[in-house]
């Protein structure tokens, strides 16, 4: 529950990673001398509340890539220097060179590229976090006890959810009360048994967090108990009385319809035969940047035989906290491929999703383009198992999509590597690039001989009302994305 749409893990998406890590013109660009280029970054910290502050770039790096025929690969790499803790700059007298830079991702920085026709840029780096997170106490435990608003029924489930430290845990087996009970717990458990939503090591709960004990029938929220704010000590008890959540809001929307969605995926190459569709409502503090992490309010899958009409009731008891009801309509299709000489399969995907604030009779038609084929130096990545020669100059990457006019475009380059259990190949980030055209150049150092890669192409529709002026800090819903994993390829010597 509360996960970002999968593509956002490569952007944020923030996670994800966030979908919102893009750039625009700095309103204060007049402070940068005309013979210099710059990139400024602002941090956005999403917890129980949302804060923004200049992002400290100390210890991270940026390079501006200037076309130069005197260089062996045609690229002069100019180091960015920190003019201020949140701003890189370099002396480049002419042009709008792309900038490659690192941000403080976990566990290691992801290399990003901004390829905009602008000399002075500002980016937003949203993350699920406190501004200064601290490690959780060693061997920490939590216990939960709640007086229920109605007797427990066997069809119900419970969940503990923290916003700020961002963890979630369900309860099973002997932790569940007997049918008819009016009290839950007390149940004690190791804090590390909670799943980390961010993927980072467990972080200390602070008084800035919201700690929610939630009750569900199926996927619909029916009860909530909010813990009194506390700084985690290592042995902490969460106690109180749960309040019933009434289903006083109507979700009346049209999605798809499913057969139309399936037709959107048909031109994608390589083909992606396995299609899944679902919708989910969350109470999301980070709704503004299309981050839907937060308590689940309701959700359901959509089958191919369904009409696409959704009529359900739900409640959001968190509106006063600023956690707006955020609806994600998500579709994804997958394929599997095992590279020659490997015994491990890789799962690749394509997808379309849309994030909106729900309103009556809303029609969700997935308006972002779905990339259909990716081309690298003129070679279509329409099948898996291709090879390319080790590049000596920048490599051109382009793609085409079913909808040709989009707000922004991205490519993500992944190396395919074994997972920690050595049971499958997974995507390891190498580079993420963003621009206003479906055309990018990958410098040769990012493609290493003997390694196996795939490229993901992404179309972004909406979400950035100031893009025409180059100010991509402004964010709003609706927001839509389409993406495609191109054919797997190997770089040969």
Secondary-structure blueprint of this entry?
Elements: E1 23-25, E2 36-46, E3 50-54, E4 62-67, E5 75-79, E6 81-84, E7 87-91, E8 99-101, E9 112-115, E10 120-128, E11 141-147, E12 156-163, E13 167-170, E14 183-190, E15 195-196, E16 210-217, E17 220-226, E18 235-241, E19 243-244, E20 249-255, H1 258-265, E21 274-284, E22 296-302, E23 309-314, E24 324-337, E25 346-356, E26 362-364, E27 371-376, E28 379-380, E29 386-389, E30 395-401, E31 408-418, E32 425-435, E33 439-442, E34 452-462, E35 479-485, E36 489-492
Parallel strand pairs: 2-10, 9-32, 11-18, 20-26, 29-36
Antiparallel strand pairs: 1-10, 2-3, 2-7, 4-5, 4-8, 6-7, 8-9, 11-14, 12-13, 12-16, 13-15, 16-17, 17-19, 20-23, 21-22, 21-24, 24-25, 25-35, 27-28, 27-30, 30-33, 31-32, 31-34, 34-35, 34-36
Please report the number of helical segments: 1
Large-scale geometry: globular
Structural class by secondary-structure content? mainly beta
Helix content: under 10%
Strand tally is: 36
Radius of gyration: 24 Å
The major beta sheet can be summarized as: 14 strands, mixed
Tell me the count of domains.
Answer: 2
Mean pLDDT figure: 92
Q: Which percent range describes the beta-strand content? A: over 45%
Low-pLDDT residue intervals, each spanning 5 or more residues: 1-29
Distance between the termini: 44 Å
Describe the structure.
The protein is an all-beta fold. The chain has two domains: 1-126 and 246-493, no CATH class; 141-244, Immunoglobulin-like (Sandwich). The chain has one helix and 36 strands. It has one helix at 258-265; strands spanning 23-25, 36-46, 50-54, 62-67, 75-79, 81-84, 87-91, 99-101, 112-115, 120-128, 141-147, 156-163, 167-170, 183-190, 195-196, 210-217, 220-226, 235-241, 243-244, 249-255, 274-284, 296-302, 309-314, 324-337, 346-356, 362-364, 371-376, 379-380, 386-389, 395-401, 408-418, 425-435, 439-442, 452-462, 479-485, 489-492. The protein is globular and about 80 Å long.
């Amino acid at each position: 529950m509360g996960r970002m749409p999968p593509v956002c893990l490569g952007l944020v998406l923030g996670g994800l990673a966030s979908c919102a890590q893009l750039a625009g013109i700095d309103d204060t660009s007049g402070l940068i001398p005309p013979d210099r280029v710059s990139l400024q970054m602002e941090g956005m910290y999403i917890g129980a509340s949302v804060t923004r502050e200049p992002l400290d770039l100390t210890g991270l790096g940026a390079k501006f890539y200037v076309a130069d025929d005197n260089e062996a690969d045609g690229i002069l790499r100019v180091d960015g220097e920190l003019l201020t803790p949140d701003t890189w700059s370099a002396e480049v007298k002419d042009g709008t060179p792309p900038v490659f830079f690192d941000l403080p991702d976990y566990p290691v920085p992801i290399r990003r590229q901004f390829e905009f026709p602008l000399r002075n840029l500002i980016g937003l780096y949203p993350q699920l976090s406190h501004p200064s997170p601290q490690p959780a106490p060693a061997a920490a435990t939590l216990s939960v006890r709640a007086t229920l608003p109605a007797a427990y029924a066997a069809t119900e489930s419970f969940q503990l959810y923290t916003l700020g430290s961002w963890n979630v845990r369900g309860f099973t087996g002997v932790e569940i009360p007997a049918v008819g009970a009016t009290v839950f717990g007390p149940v004690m458990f190791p804090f590390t048994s909670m799943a980390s939503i961010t993927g980072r090591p467990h972080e200390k709960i602070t008084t800035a967090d919201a700690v929610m004990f939630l009750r569900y029938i199926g996927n619909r929220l029916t009860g909530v108990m909010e813990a009194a704010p506390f700084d985690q000590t290592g042995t902490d008890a969460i106690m109180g009385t749960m309040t019933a959540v009434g289903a006083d809001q109507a979700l009346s929307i049209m999605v798809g319809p499913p057969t139309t969605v399936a037709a959107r995926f048909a031109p994608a190459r390589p083909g992606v035969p396995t299609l899944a569709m679902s919708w989910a409502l969350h109470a999301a503090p980070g709704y503004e940047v299309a981050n839907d992490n937060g308590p689940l309010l309701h959700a359901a899958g959509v089958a191919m035989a369904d009409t696409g009409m959704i009529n359900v009731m739900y409640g959001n008891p968190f509106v006063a906290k600023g956690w707006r009801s955020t609806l994600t309509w998500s579709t994804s299709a997958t394929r599997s491929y095992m590279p020659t000489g490997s015994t491990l399969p890789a799962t690749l995907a394509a997808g379309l999703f849309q994030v909106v604030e729900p309103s009556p009779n809303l029609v969700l038609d997935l308006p972002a383009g779905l990339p259909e084929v990716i081309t690298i130096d003129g070679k279509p990545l329409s099948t898996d198992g291709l090879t390319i020669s080790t590049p000596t100059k920048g490599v051109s990457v382009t793609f085409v999509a079913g909808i040709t006019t989009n707000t922004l475009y991205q490519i993500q380059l992944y190396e395919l590597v074994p997972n920690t259990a050595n049971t499958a190949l997974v995507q390891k980030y190498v580079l993420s690039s963003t621009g206003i055209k479906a055309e990018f150049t990958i410098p040769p150092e990012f493609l290493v001989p003997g390694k196996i890669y795939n490229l993901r192409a992404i179309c972004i529709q909406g979400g950035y009302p100031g893009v025409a002026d180059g100010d991509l800090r402004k964010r709003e819903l609706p927001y839509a994305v389409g993406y495609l994993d191109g054919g797997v390829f190997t770089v040969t010597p």
